[in-house]
Design a protein that fits this description.
- By secondary structure, the protein is α+β, with helices and mostly antiparallel strands.
- It has three domains: about 5-115, PAS domain (Beta-Lactamase, 2-Layer Sandwich), CATH 3.30.450.20; about 120-190, Helix Hairpins (Orthogonal Bundle), CATH 1.10.287.130; about 200-345, Histidine kinase-like ATPase, C-terminal domain (Heat Shock Protein 90, 2-Layer Sandwich), CATH 3.30.565.
- It is built from nine helices and twelve strands.
- A five-stranded antiparallel sheet has the order 2-1-5-4-3, with helices on both faces. The protein has a five-stranded mixed sheet with strand order 7-9-10-12-11. Strands 6-8 form a two-stranded antiparallel ribbon.
- A hairpin with a 5-residue loop joins strand 1 and strand 2 (about 30-35).
- Helix 5 (about 120-155) runs antiparallel to helix 6, helix 7 (about 200-220) packs parallel to helix 8 (about 240-255) and helix 8 (about 240-255) packs antiparallel against helix 9 (about 315-325).
- The protein is elongated.
């Protein structure tokens, strides 16, 4: 049994909808706003029609908002955007706006869109970023003190250096986790991650990471073999060596975590105008539909539940952002149940 709504019923449904609805014609100018929109802005349909609605968009968001809308309108492609819109009391609220083309009699008729107020969500995200930053700051201070005391104890007692080296490595690992917290807050706030760039040899960074994991691998996952091939010719790039090391460590940690056995390999090579590093594993792999999503903050693949693979889901997100801020690309190839290969491509220095 199918139910067909009349025009009046559709109109009543749209007017009563809890979301703000708008429509534009083939000239990209708006000719309809539902009662929910008009109640939010406190303006009449005549005031909002055409380009009048743009008067309510925050001045810092207006150019971006209009450009995004028009570019998708001319391509006749759906779009999603967030911007601040002035409420009837003069307060600007963040809204999420989704628009899509529609047809009339088989011909392009314009766009129709719906908006929801997402200010509470944005506020919650800001609070979370603040909390992450505060936690990272509070943890870093005692960690620095622990490292200092450890150095003093070793100097005064002359104890076995190997033991202190192991403790120092754990402190370094803890420090990386703190850095990840801080970086997560920056990524969520759309801020650039701090780095100091210089000319360097990417192969040397790879060799340094390889040396660490040749010793660390048996303890990370005794069922996994680790191989490194870092004998490539000089791979000169412009970057931050510590940040690039962080990229490789984050990817390697995932490779070991999601591999029940088999081989994890690390290699460095030249490919055209790019200096490349590839980390491949024989782990659980990623579903094809999820490969493009695994670099999103907090995303977890469907075959990697938290109770089996603990973690915040930020490793690849941070790695991807760092690579992008080096002008490079992070490519992921994976086959479910077979393994994953992550390739970092950075532009070579002239």
């Amino acid at each position: 049994m199918s139910l067909t709504l009349t025009y009046d019923e559709y109109r009543a449904l749209v007017e009563a909808a809890p979301v703000m609805v708008w429509r534009s014609g083939t000239d990209a100018r708006c000719d309809y706003f539902n009662e929910t929109w008009l109640a939010f802005t406190g303006r009449t349909l005549e005031e909002e029609a055409g380009d009048g609605w743009a008067e309510g968009v925050h001045s810092d968001d207006l150019d971006r908002c209009v450009a995004e809308y028009l570019s998708h309108f001319h391509r006749r492609e759906s779009f999603e955007i967030e911007y601040r819109l002035r409420r009837r009391d003069g307060v600007y609220r963040w809204i999420f706006d989704r628009g899509a083309p529609f047809q009339v009699g088989g011909e392009f008729g314009g766009f129709i869109g719906s908006c929801v107020d997402v200010q509470e969500r944005r506020d919650a995200e800001a609070d979370r970023r603040t909390t992450l930053s505060m936690v990272a700051h509070e943890l870093r201070t005692p960690l620095t003190a622990v490292q200092t005391y450890l150095d003093v104890i070793q100097a005064k007692t002359g104890a076995d250096a190997a033991v202190f080296d192991k403790v120092a490595r754990q402190i370094q690992r803890f420090s990386r986790l703190i850095d990840d917290l801080s970086d997560t807050a920056r990524i969520e706030g759309a801020q650039a991650l701090g780095m100091i760039k210089s000319e360097l040899d990417l192969a040397e960074v790879v060799r340094r990471v390889a040396a660490t994991y040749e010793e660390l691998a048996p303890r990370r996952n005794p069922r996994v073999r680790f191989e490194a091939h870092a004998d490539a010719p000089a791979c000169r790039v412009h970057g931050d060596p510590d940040r690039l090391e962080q990229v490789l460590v984050n990817i390697l940690e995932n490779a070991f975590k999601f591999s029940p056995g088999g081989l994890v390999s690390l290699s460095c090579f030249l490919e055209g105008e790019a200096a490349c590093v590839r980390i491949a594993d024989q782990g659980i792999g990623i579903h094809p539909d999820e490969i493009a999503k695994v670099t999103r903050p907090y995303f977890r693949a469907s075959n990697a539940p938290a109770h089996r693979f603990p973690g915040a889901g930020m490793g690849l997100a941070i790695a991807s952002e760092l690579v992008a801020q080096h002008g490079g690309q992070l490519a992921i190839a994976s086959e479910l149940g077979t393994g994953t290969a992550v390739t970092v491509r950075l532009p070579r220095s002239a």
